[in-house]
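Supplementary Methods, section 5.1.

A reviewer requested that the exact input to the structure prediction be made available. We therefore reproduce it here, unchanged from the version used in the analyses.
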Amino acid sequence: MKYKPLQDTTTMEVVQTEIENKDKKQVKDPQGQISPRAFRVIRSEKIIKKLNLGISFSLMLISLILFAFAYSKVPPFDKKYIGYLIFFASTAFIFFALGTKNSIEDVQWSNTIKRYREALSNGDYTSSNTFHLAYKRIVLKGVNITWILIFILTYWGLITAIIFGLYQADRLKLNWQTYIVIDLPWREWLNKGFGNTLLYCLISVIGMCSLVVFYVIMLLVDKKRLADLDDFLGEKSVEIHEQINKARKDRNKAWLIAYLVIVLVTIFIPLTLIALAIWRSVVRRRKTK
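The structure derived from this sequence is encoded token-by-token as follows.
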């Protein structure tokens, strides 16, 4: 029995086409120094840093424009509301600080990749140090962002709650030793400062919720970034993870101490002094009666 060679090469062509398509989808280093897998991670990090940079300065610009509208009494800011001026100025400063931080990180990452290329040119193919630094920065950045969010929610939430409480209280009248009367028209003052106080409170709540949503999205993105970088930590990955975990614990401890001290000085002590002053005034009034 004679066997004839297979004439149908369709399967081979399909496989070859799939291989070629897969090869085209791979992101390759233009200089041909870095492997496609490593370059894909490096490129993704660069894109994320540029995106963070653009978002930060865009939001800063929007805040400055809204500040200019509020200052110039452009509708819907028919009057020069002090509350909105302070709010937009603070927001612009925060995003300017974040944009500056992202700019520094972008420059640092570019320098890190430059040193990595120089090491490859010299025949050093150990990439663990490059990706180790990136991994550590992302972990510590996550710690910093978490505590910054806690600070923002603590003070922004407290200020919003106080403003809403004073607005609901309308006004406060105090009689001091029968001949001194203190009248505090909270609602009138707040409306002069914000125009529509309830609208400001609503915007604040939406802003805080948006920050939480953005924070969750950032955590998910960073989790994916860490998973990609983890593949390039090399043989010392266990040791590197131990060092990073220790650095994370130390950073969390430092933030916790700072948070407790600042909250104690700026919130608890003033509230305690105010409560003590009110209690003394009540006691004195009872004694005079």
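The two ends are 125 Å apart (CA to CA). These observations are discussed further in the main text.
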